[in-house]
Design a protein that fits this description.
Bound molecules: zinc ion
Number of helices: 10
Structural class: alpha/beta
Length: about 350
Amino acid sequence: MKALVLERVRALSLRDIDIPSELGPDDVRIAIDTVGICGSDVHYFTHGRIGPYVVNEPMVLGHEAAGTIIETGSAVTTLKPGDRVCMEPGIPDPNSRATRLGIYNVDPAVSFWATPPVHGCLAPEVVHPAAFTFKLPDNVSFAEGAMIEPLAVGMQAAIKAGITPGDTALVTGAGPIGIMTALAALAGGCAKVFISDLQDEKLEIAGRYPGMIPVNIKTQDLKKTIDEATGDWGLDVIFEASGSPKAFENLFTLVRPAGTVVLVGMPVEPVAIDVVGAQAREIRIETVFRYAHVFDRALDLIASGKIDLKPLISETFPFEDAITAFERAAEGRPGDVKLQIKVG
Ligand SMILES: [Zn+2]
């Protein structure tokens, strides 16, 4: 089976590789249609590692996927061949303490696509548990289905924020996760969401969405903008989605007393934070690691038209050009939000 294999840093090949393909009773076999390229895939390509996860042997990339069921295990009753689906890429141990508590995303035993040594889904077929495979509503395309994974991160952030209808929020960082977090926050009841970045191209795309207010921090004073908009009271919620140490410098000064800061972005190095600044106004700090129990909700929001991800798909590459797609993603063009690969 030909798959997109990361051999080592900066070395990709489209070649045959043996991937486990045994279908258990609770599994489904899926013909992959579309896979989105994630920042983490690109980082493994360019650096060969993310924190403790190191690519020591060839690994198939990709974890944002949609496709069609072609076979079901003997115990599967919820899905059938022909069903169009998207997949949640992290499989926890069903009997672990974390899973039993409902927090399976932080199960230490979770096995996640394209996180070494686990192969990803940039291949014609994958076998996956039916419990982590979700049927696409008829009006949701494969391309949108392959965007549910990053949207799920934004959904998790919006849930962790505990949004109250009418809240005013800020997302720092207008990358794919930042924009999808802003979309989830608006769908979750925020009246408006400021979104800040340094790149006009990214902000221009965000600013096309009603309710999203772009702020370029190179030319605009963010604190002044927020103070003016909130009558010096501050924001109900801030989602930090840039991972940049710079964003933490005045973060707590932008939140209202007893407001919430949700940490979504992942700084490469430890970051200093103003603890007393947060304490003095009893700011609540939440963190997000991937997601749990949100894929079905994300799909419902797409199907209902409350979230439209289509404007975020910048370009789609055929599978034979998958390496070109990764080289393009590694360029980090500011106008590119999501690049996808059409596998099937
Ligand atoms: Zn991703």
